[in-house]
Recover the amino acids of this structure.
């Protein structure tokens, strides 16, 4: 499948799942706009590697997804530099865990701003250009936590459930515009976001990395193994294909059986 001539903006693509998705779309020929935080030299290395490996144009924009004006400016700059934004992957996200009565207000606000409001502002900025071209793909990286809950994750679960609601509304509004809107709902994927949770458990329980990894994955997923960023990239690529052109407004789980229970 070829995405030659298409431009994909992937938020939070300097790491983990977003990078896996950017790699999959670049490998199919899409030009890429990378976004996310990190070491400037490492990001430049990633950018030039991706461009050279796949012969596509890759740019980087460091917009903070908690800031609506920076998102709008990033989409406008991407359209100017690349001609359009045809595929928007709203992937940037953070996690924080605490019981609801102890959950810090500023952490709640930050998670809602990045994991939920950032998705809204990205969609709002990208839709006019997609409508003008009569084609678009909006892929929101939600989570198994968009469908079911876990304790200590009030803000994250609320945000991810919100992303699914936003996905449905937007899909209906755009149903006859050539634009599909979907949500990918991964289970456990071994990325820095999950590594932090593993290290917190090691400290809390005095156990080895191997022990806490087995516990973390097996308590939620019948399939006791991680999904990889490459596999999530493969699903995102499928959602950009013609075969997926009537898949809209739905969550697609890639979760080792987590939400089958
Ligand atoms: P990660 O920490 O590896 O990557 C997160 C990315 O988002 C990084 O590039 C980071 O720089 C970027 N980011 C964070 N805050 C940002 C901000 N304010 N502005 C711009 N970029 C910002 O995490 P990941 O696991 O790859 O997570 C990616 C997405 O996948 C998130 O939305 C997460 O909720 C979701 N997810 C992850 C898992 C998992 O098991 N890892 C499971 C389900 C869903």
């Amino acid at each position: 499948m070829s995405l030659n001539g298409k431009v994909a903006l992937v938020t939070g693509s300097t790491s983990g799942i977003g990078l896996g998705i950017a790699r999959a779309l670049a490998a199919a020929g899409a030009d890429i706009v990378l976004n996310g935080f990190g070491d400037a030299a490492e990001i430049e290395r990633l950018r030039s590697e991706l461009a050279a490996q796949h012969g596509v144009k890759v740019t980087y924009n460091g917009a903070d997804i908690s800031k609506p004006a920076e998102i709008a400016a990033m989409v406008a700059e991407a359209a100017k530099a690349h001609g359009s934004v045809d595929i928007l992957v709203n992937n940037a996200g953070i996690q924080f865990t605490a019981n609801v009565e102890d959950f810090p207000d500023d952490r709640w606000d930050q998670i809602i701003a990045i994991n939920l409001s950032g998705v809204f502002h990205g969609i709002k900025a990208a839709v006019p250009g997609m409508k003008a071209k009569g084609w678009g793909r909006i892929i929101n990286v939600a989570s198994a936590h968009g469908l079911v809950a876990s304790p200590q994750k009030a803000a994250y679960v609320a945000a991810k459930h919100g992303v699914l609601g936003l996905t449905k509304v937007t899909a209906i509004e755009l149903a006859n515009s050539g634009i599909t809107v979907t949500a990918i709902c991964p289970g456990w994927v071994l990325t820095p976001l999950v590594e932090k949770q593993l290290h917190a458990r090691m400290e809390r329980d005095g156990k080895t990395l191997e022990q806490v990894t087995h516990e973390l994955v097996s308590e939620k997923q019948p399939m006791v193994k991680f999904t990889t960023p490459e596999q999530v990239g493969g699903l995102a690529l499928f959602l950009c294909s013609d075969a997926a052109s009537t898949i809209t407004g739905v969550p697609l789980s890639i979760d080792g059986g987590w939400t089958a229970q």
